[in-house]
Amino acid sequence: MPPTWIFDLDNTLHDAEPYIFPEMNRMMTAYVARHMGVDEATANRLRVDYWRQYGSTLAGLLQHSEIDPEHFLRETHRFPELDRRIRPMRGLRAILRRLPGRKVLFTNAPYVYAITVLRALRIEHHFDGVIAMQQTGFRPKPHGAGYRRILAQHGLAAERCIMVEDSRDNLVTAKRMGMRTVWLSRDLRHGPAVDFRISRLSDLTRVAAGLTMSSEDK
Ligand SMILES: [Mg+2]
């Protein structure tokens, strides 16, 4: 039986560095400045501190202020040039087509954004489910809420799942729950939470082939 692949979105399926992340950071800093009544430099520092400490800027704002999370997410995820400026990872559509097994998207981003990006990448039809910020009760990865939700909602055993991520911290929870993990990174120091490290998404087909071989060996 093929595994179920749990994919992160930003910087895993597409490169968010050239357009999406700089724009998002700019919108979040502006929102924090308005919401907390601070100047831009302070807002920028708070945005980064919250992201480091709580896993997302929103999670920090929820801890430290009264805020409507849906309003925050709407206002900080507007990308009018998305279709033109999205940068899929090389070979993305062919990789998803070739990988055997179900695929679920698991992102700390808002739901509408996730769907919009999947459509812009033209890969929406590959995914059986999307777990985004709202589906975790605003408890982002690496909090266990979203991971448990995926297993329950799709009736999956953790041992049958492979999580693919560019953030190693998010793989620690997956590994602890019994999933296998793939870290997309050029960093060679991968540590115990990482079963496979790949430097390009296209190397996933090699991971999949290895899994088939090792299950045939048994
Ligand atoms: Mg990511």
Structure notes:
The protein has 218 residues and is an alpha/beta fold. It folds into 2 domains: 4-15 and 86-217, Rossmann fold; 20-75, Orthogonal Bundle (DNA polymerase, domain 1). It is built from 10 helices and 6 strands, in the order βααααααβαβαβαββα. It has a 6-stranded parallel sheet with strand order 3-2-1-4-5-6, sandwiched between helices. Helix 2 (40-54) packs across helix 3 (57-64). Magnesium ion binds next to loops.
Summarize the structure.
The protein is of the alpha/beta class and 218 residues long. Helices cover 47% and strands 11% of the residues.
Q: Residue share in helices?
A: 40-55%
CATH T-level topology of the largest domain: Rossmann fold
CATH second-level architecture of the largest domain: 3-Layer(aba) Sandwich
What structural class is derived from the secondary structure elements? alpha/beta
**Series of H and E elements:** EHHHHHHEHEHEHEEH
What's the CATH C level of the largest domain?
A: Alpha Beta
Poorly predicted ranges:
none
CATH superfamily of the largest domain: HAD superfamily/HAD-like
Give the strand order of the largest sheet, numbering strands 1, 2, ... along the chain.
Answer: 3-2-1-4-5-6
> In percent terms, what proportion of residues is strand?
5-15%
Shape: globular
Largest sheet: 6 strands, parallel
Calculate the mean pLDDT score and round it. Answer: 94
* End-to-end gap: 14 Å
Can you count the beta strands? 6
Enumerate how many helices there are, as a single number. Answer: 10
Q: How many domains?
A: 2
